[in-house]
Amino acid sequence: MHEQLTNRFSVVPRHIAIIMDGNGRWAKQHGLPRIEGHRRGVINVESILECASEINLEVLTLFAFSSENWNRPREEVDALMNLLSEFLASKEPLLHKNRVKLRTIGRKHELPERVVAQLEQVESSTAQYPRTLVLALNYGSRVEVVDAARKLIAMVQAGTLDPANLDWDSLSRCLYTSDLPDPDLVIRTSGESRLSNFLLLQAAYAEIYYSPLNWPDFDRKAFAGALESFQKRERRYGMTSEQIAKRPLPA
Fold first, then answer.
1. Which residues share a beta bridge with 103?
2. What are the tens digits of pLDDT across the range 13-61?
3. Would you list the domain boundaries of the chain?
4. Active-site residue list
């Protein structure tokens, strides 16, 4: 029986974002085809969803398919789309059980029609729940900025935005994540130490945690380790430690 994470941590992030890396390396280490690594990675998502529920996490974002992943071999891309379809079909009851709504970010409309239809069905059926699982699909931060710039240009042309008044709040409302809090903690597995075009603007003040484990091996113990590391971080947002110490506690 695994140890529950409930009430174990004094500081719980509102939003954790995970770059689920190392499925292919895991498969190679075990002498299996790459797609088996991705399949094991999908299985591991359920374990991490349970962890998120135990700590009452408000938002969990998973980097599931990047806008650059289309460059992979066609058979691998097709297999990933099939796995996504299987995930949506099999895990919808889990979302209902844990009262979690599904949300996607990225150019969803470029995904296969059947996958888009499934995503929209699950998004609709879970829309009433208080916590959120975000799947970043066909997502890239640079593409997101381009799409935001197009929205801003359209607003200027329509006369609803004065360029002289453009600020971060105006821009952030045009990002895919406009209705989500910025991530407090970004986790990347497989020992790589880069963000790989993931939430680059939103993660400006996020704490970064790199795990040497490949994603299929990133279990609840590893998730707890990331949260333990987060407890020790001092988030200053440009201020000094002394200023942070004097700030009133949130109501």
1. 134
2. 999 999 999 999 999 999 999 999 999 999 999 999 999 999 999 999 9
3. 15-231
4. 21, 69
The rounded distance, in Å, linking the Cα atoms of 116 and 233 is: 39
- Encoded amino acid at 42, one letter: V
The C-alpha atoms of residue 94 and residue 147 are separated, in whole angstroms, by 32
Cβ(184)–Cβ(15) below 8 Å: yes
Other beta carbons within 10 Å of 76: 15
Tokens of 11: 């500081």
In 10 A of CB 201, how many CB atoms?
Answer: 15
Architecture in CATH of 15-231: 3-Layer(aba) Sandwich (3.40)
Q: Compute the distance between CA of residue 247 and CA of residue 242 in angstroms, rounded to an integer.
A: 9
- DSSP codes joined into one string, 69-108: GGGS-HHHHHHHHHHHHHHHHHHHHHHHHTTEEEEEES-G
103-145 per-position pLDDT tens digit: 999 999 999 999 999 999 999 999 999 999 999 999 999 999 9
pLDDT at 250 over 50: no
pTM above 0.85, yes or no: yes
Q: How far is 102 from 114, CA to CA, in rounded Å? A: 17
- Residue recorded with tokens 């460059």: 71
Q: State the Cα–Cα distance between residues 31 and 5, nearest whole angstrom.
A: 33
Distance CA 146, CA 26 (A): 34
